[in-house]
């Protein structure tokens, strides 16, 4: 995303590209398409890697010898003097890989948001190094806000201003597994009060903000005066 406008301006290749009969908007949205496709492929690769890991690894399971439980007490009487048996079983017997797809889709949504922010900044700037610096600073500041909000209850309101709030893979997997009927709601309620964003809300916030930034970048790039390469 950072190379879309600022990188090509810095290298001087954008001037040559625009010398051809092609609009700025087409150049911009082709970059958006390529970036989004790459983000989708990265998320898919994470899913494939996780699947291969689950189906190729073994876990150790200990089988205790049979025993007789004494009702009303925490004691039991062993029915055999054999030692506990240790066996290896495929991890796939204990892990359902389909329960983790919310983590993959929210990873794509987060990548879409960050790429949209980077492309918007790139459309405003002319130096790629500065664009990358701004994007890194943005992510670092957002992460610091998240840590502060989690460490100090009086600063918990800061979570409402960081994109790490909707990016919650563990929380979304927990909702999907334990409360699947609530996953597609926008809000998750605790009693009558809003507790947090649910699955649909987290995805729509990140995808919506990412799309908004792409549109802002498009409007800036198609209307700004492009400086000559230095």
Give your account of this protein's structure.
Helices cover about 55% and strands about 10% of the residues. With about 230 residues, the protein is mainly alpha-helical. The protein has one domain (about 5-225). It has a two-stranded antiparallel sheet. Helix 1 packs parallel to helix 4 and helix 4 packs antiparallel against helix 6. The mean pLDDT is about 85.
Rg calc: 25 Å
* Outline type: elongated
Q: How many DSSP E strands?
A: 6
Distance between the termini: 21 Å
Helix share, percent: 55-70%
Would you tell me the overall average pLDDT? 86
Q: List the domain count as a whole number.
A: 1
| Biggest sheet features | 2 strands, antiparallel
Strand order of the largest sheet: 1-4
Number of contiguous helices:
7
Which secondary-structure class do the elements indicate? mainly alpha
């Amino acid at each position: 995303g950072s190379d879309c406008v600022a990188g090509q301006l810095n290298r001087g290749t954008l001037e040559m590209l625009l010398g051809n009969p092609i609009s700025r908007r087409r150049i911009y949205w082709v970059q958006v398409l390529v970036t989004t496709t790459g983000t989708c492929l990265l998320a898919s690769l994470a899913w494939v890697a996780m699947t291969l890991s689950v189906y190729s690894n073994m876990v150790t399971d200990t089988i205790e010898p049979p025993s007789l439980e004494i009702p009303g007490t925490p004691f039991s009487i062993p029915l055999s003097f054999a030692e506990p048996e240790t066996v290896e079983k495929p991890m796939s017997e204990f892990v359902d890989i389909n329960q983790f797809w919310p983590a993959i889709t929210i990873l794509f949504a987060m990548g879409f948001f960050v790429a949209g922010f980077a492309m918007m900044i790139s459309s405003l700037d002319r130096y790629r190094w500065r664009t990358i610096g701004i994007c890194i600073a943005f992510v670092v500041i957002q992460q610091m806000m998240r840590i502060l909000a989690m460490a100090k209850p009086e600063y918990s309101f800061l979570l409402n201003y960081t994109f790490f709030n909707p990016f919650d893979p563990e929380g979304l997997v927990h909702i999907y597994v334990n409360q699947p009927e609530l996953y597609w709601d926008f809000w998750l309620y605790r009693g009558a009060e809003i507790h947090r964003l649910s699955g649909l809300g987290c995805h729509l916030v990140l995808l919506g903000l990412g799309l908004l930034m792409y549109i802002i970048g498009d409007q800036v790039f198609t209307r700004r005066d492009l400086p000559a390469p230095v």
